[in-house]
Design a protein that fits this description.
Blueprint lengths: L1 H14 L4 H25 L5 E7 L2 E2 L4 E8 L6 E7 L6 E3 L3 E5 L4 E9 L4 E13 L6 E15 L2 H7 L1 H5 L1 H5 L5 E2 L5 E7 L11 H7 L3 E6 L5 E7 L7 E2 L2 E2 H18 L3 E7 L5 E5 L4 H9 L11 H11 L5 E6 L6 H12 L3 E7 L2 H8 L5 H25 L4 E5 L4 H14 L4
Parallel strand pairs: 2-9, 13-16, 13-18, 18-19, 19-20
Antiparallel strand pairs: 1-3, 3-7, 4-6, 4-8, 5-7, 8-9, 10-12, 11-12, 14-15, 16-17
Length: 428
């Protein structure tokens, strides 16, 4: 339409000097107006194609996934359009927008690659199309409504790959070989013939009736223990380092340690506090990792202040048996009293490890060259604050608590290493 109007305007300019061009200009304008009106009516009569969307597989953070769109033309007219899917704006996309020609009564399928940059639950409201008129003079912008909910999970494949050596070393870490024994036990091992000296309650009466002889249950010592993460989801965990929040780094570390712990036969659970409340009871089944992912994939830090003491009381109520509790938080001076009281409470029954995160900007400020008075004041302020933080954490460490004071990027490797050290020492 723009090109046609430009040509018509050029003829009009010629008409200013050549009288003969005036009639041509009028005729072209009349014809162009009639064609444009007819083309517009035809465009408005064209139906929108039907849309179907399918996400191929499971989408993981930072991993390209494939989305398939199917367009169906229900009309007897050919459709020429440009399509763009209304994906979350922060995600990287390859293969859009796309020019599509749909024949009458036909369908077509297109694929494009979507790389999530955030985890959580996201909505696709639909697609946007630019539908061309039959003569190409008009374009009608239309929205095709198709609401789809998309789940983006943490990158479990990368976590498994990074911790594969720790999994392969599980036999050495586990220590002494597990041997079955008679009498009291914790985990069922097998059925066997009844021997003199076995207690009556060891007899499996159903198997005895089926085999027509006394059959006893044999148990083995339980080597697996319980590991529960106590994860802070309050406002402190909103801080970002290298474009990743402290909570994102904490979740990656939780999944990494859980992956290794399950490989070593331990039951893994999780409880959050200070924000959205999530509870996942300790389990050691193969489905435990999937259960953890379902509970934390959309977890985001809140604006609320965290109360570690209240979280400790709740965890004691949920977990009466001895457990390795790994608390991950980001504390300040005003939080130390509650953190110390929570540590005292949990240490009465559980083995406690606290990973206290700090911002990398603090370390960078200490390594910055001092050039003037403001730099010197900033250096001494940060140095004093970190010294006070170390004194507070030393008080908690003297209670018999394992303390990790580290940057978020160091959390995953440090927790895995500390867990393996505890396993080797036989403390868990």
């Amino acid at each position: 339409m723009v090109l046609a109007l430009a040509g018509w305007t050029f003829v009009g300019l010629l008409a200013a000097w050549f009288l003969e061009a005036r009639l041509a200009w009028q005729g072209i304008g009349t014809l162009l107006g009639a064609l444009a009106a007819a083309d517009l009516v035809a465009l408005l009569g064209l139906p929108s194609p039907e849309l179907r969307r399918q996400v191929q597989g499971i989408l993981s953070l930072g991993t390209p996934g494939r989305v398939r769109l199917t367009l169906i033309n229900p009309s007897a007219r050919n459709l020429l359009l440009r399509l763009h899917d209304l994906h979350p704006s922060a995600f990287a996309v390859q293969g859009l927008p796309r020019e599509i020609a749909l024949g009458a009564g036909t369908s077509t399928t297109i694929d494009y690659r979507l790389t999530p940059s955030q985890r959580g639950s996201f909505a696709f409201p639909g697609c946007e199309i630019a539908l061309r008129s039959p003569l190409g003079l008009w374009i009608d912008m239309r929205a095709l409504t198709l609401s789809t909910r998309l789940r983006v999970y943490p990158n479990l494949a990368r976590i498994a790959r990074d911790n594969l050596p720790a999994m392969q070393d599980r036999r050495a870490v586990a220590g002494e070989r597990v041997r079955p024994r008679r009498g009291e036990g914790a985990e069922f091992h097998q059925l066997r013939d009844y021997h003199r000296g076995d207690g009556l309650r060891r007899i499996d009466w159903k198997a005895t009736a089926r085999m027509r002889k006394l059959i006893a249950r044999e148990y083995e010592d339980e080597r697996g223990r319980h590991l529960v993460f106590l994860l802070d989801a309050g406002r402190r965990m909103r801080h970002c380092d290298a474009e990743r929040s402290h909570l994102d780094e904490a979740l990656s570390a939780v999944l990494a340690v859980a992956f290794v712990a399950l490989a070593h036969g331990d039951a893994v659970g999780l409880m959050t506090y200070g924000g959205p409340r999530r509870w996942c009871a300790p389990r050691k089944q193969p489905q435990t990792m999937q259960r953890l992912l379902e509970r934390v994939y959309d977890l985001e830090p809140s604006l609320d202040a965290s109360d570690p003491l209240q979280a400790a009381r709740e965890l004691l109520h949920r977990m009466p048996r001895r457990t390795l509790v790994v608390m991950i938080t980001n504390s300040r001076d005003e939080d130390q009293s509650g953190l110390e009281r929570a540590a005292r409470l949990l240490r009465r029954r559980h083995m406690l490890m606290i990973a206290d995160l700090r911002e990398s900007a603090l370390d960078r400020s200490l390594n910055t060259a001092i050039k003037d008075l403001p730099d010197a004041l900033r250096f001494h302020s940060v140095h004093g604050w970190l010294a006070t933080r170390r004194r507070h954490l030393d008080r908690v460490r003297h209670l018999g608590v394992e303390i990790l004071d580290l940057l978020p990027a160091q959390l995953s490797g440090a927790l895995v290493a500390q867990y393996l050290a505890i396993k080797r020492a036989g403390r868990l």
